[in-house]
Amino acid sequence: MKSEYMYLVNIAVMLLAANIGGVISKKFKQPAVLGQILMGVILGMGIMVKTELVTHLAEIGVIFLMFIAGLETDIDELKESSKSSSLIALGGVIFPFSFVGGATYLLTNDFSTSIFMGIIATATSVSISVQTLREIGQLRTKQGITILGAAIIDDIVGILLLTIAIGVISPESSINVFFVLGKIVMFFVITVLCGIVITKLLRMFELKINFEDKIVTYAIIVCFFLAFLSEELGVAAITGAYFSGVVFSMTSFRHRVSHDINKIASSIFTPLFFVAIGMGVDLKSAATALGIGSILIVAAILGKIIGGGLGARLSGFNKDEALQIGIGMVPRAEVAIIIANLGLKLNVISDKDLSIVILMVLVTTLVTPSLLKWSFAKVK
């Protein structure tokens, strides 16, 4: 008989696998995240099933990861990098969209599929880059902050492109672009207001009330609330988590919150997130897409490196820094698969196209940590 507490064993096995994968990866002088993802792929090969509980715990992991990234962000540097982030995001959308969409059209001669595959290629899953940059001590550099800013803009542009594409390809499923844009604006307005209120309240009462014991709990409450709100308003949950971290980075409790959340996240949730990414990879589906998939994956990787790199060069970064930023924009993960599943439901893309997207997620997730580490190491 299967015990109702079997989930505890599953979580224990995943955490053990994450730790073993991280140690092995570091032995080969690679970021721990690479080993964690690979161990997830191994567990997913019939050893374990990715349950709903594991999925939810993994989601908390990525939310904490982006919250920590926000805590470690200097708000003045984030403002300074807004122009360069916008240029990089623009390049990181135009080039992958053109490369992958154009390659798909040449291979299939299907306009609708080409547009959708191009949009899928614009998605950036910055969580992989964030963890790698943290491991190699580069998250708080100008390049690291710029990558974060560009990835957030990428998300918003991707949502708008997807909305427009659905309206053109499937008018009955159309959502008003201005309605979507309005929800995104509403999210940022609410976030700014929350930031102002929270920072003022903490400054007002920090001398009268001892927040030391409860501040981490309050920070998690704000983080989860803004993550939920951003998802509900059409922006990825990780964006809300990131900005809640930025809010607390402007308070005197920044280091306390960062230290305690780091301990919680790195002990349980973040390793589970990266193992779960690996477990979610369907190797059989990915193997069926090796032919055409290889061409589109090369186009997707080059699109981000060239597009993001060109935007960085136009913003004043040197060649090495532009390469680092371009590589940081390469990984795709859950967002790409969500868009692909939507395309499948609308009969815009086929099962084979979905397999190509899964292969793209696998390859870009696995190559980014090593490439990022190499790009920073070669200029030392």
How would you describe this structure to a colleague?
The termini are far apart. The chain has one domain: Na+/H+ antiporter like fold, CATH 1.20.1530.20. The protein is globular, with a radius of gyration of 20 Å. The chain has helices spanning 6-27, 32-43, 52-71, 75-80, 82-108, 111-122, 126-135, 142-169, 177-205, 215-232, 237-249, 254-279, 283-288, 290-314, 319-328, 334-345, 351-377. The protein has 17 helices and no strands. The protein has 380 residues and is mostly helical.
> Helix amount, in percent?
over 70%
Under CATH, the topology can be stated as: Na+/H+ antiporter like fold
CATH structural class: Mainly Alpha
Number of domains: 1
Secondary structure category? mainly alpha
The chain-level mean pLDDT equals: 84
Question: What composes the largest sheet?
Answer: none
